[in-house]
Amino acid sequence: MDWFGSGKKKTGGGQWVEMQEYVHRRPSVDGKRGEIENPQGTASYDRNATDLTVHGIVSGKPGGGTLLMHQIAMDAQEMGKPFVRTTMTAPSAFGFYHRMGMLPSQQSKTMGELSMARTHPEGVSFPIGQVGKPGRLNQTSLDAIDLRIKTSRMQWEAPTDTVLRKSFGR
Fold this sequence. Notes:
Blueprint: E1 2-4, E2 7-10, E3 16-19, E4 22-25, E5 33-38, E6 41-47, E7 51-58, H1 64-78, E8 83-86, H2 94-99, E9 103-104, H3 106-119, H4 139-151, E10 156-159, H5 160-168
Parallel strand pairs: 7-8
Antiparallel strand pairs: 1-4, 2-3, 4-5, 5-6, 6-7, 8-10, 9-10
Helix pairs in contact: 1-5, 3-4
């Protein structure tokens, strides 16, 4: 569904104002792709039997990704999909998806742990401090780093209601 057409419109004061085009194509059936394009950025997602799977969110504006994720979660709720998932999450998006209430899927965690066990059988060591900047990482920080390493580029997921709640206030 296109919300507005593009073009120019003359306002009452005689000034020309350029209109922007907003696109929000909701997939009508399972197996179809949905797209959102608006001034906040762009997003693409698939409609599946039990979820909407986000392929990408791109925004150059603060809060833009959160708004796009909220729109996707609203679509999921409207379509009766109980989960919102991602595909191949970029390592740089870890914090964003975590703020949206998403966690790595159990399958992703298992695959990540197996992969790390194969590639780093001795484990991974983390520095406790830096020269000139002594410090310590607590266990929570170490666990977060460990999870981030193991699940980067993996699938993340959350119940639709959680994503709606976390993305609402921006």
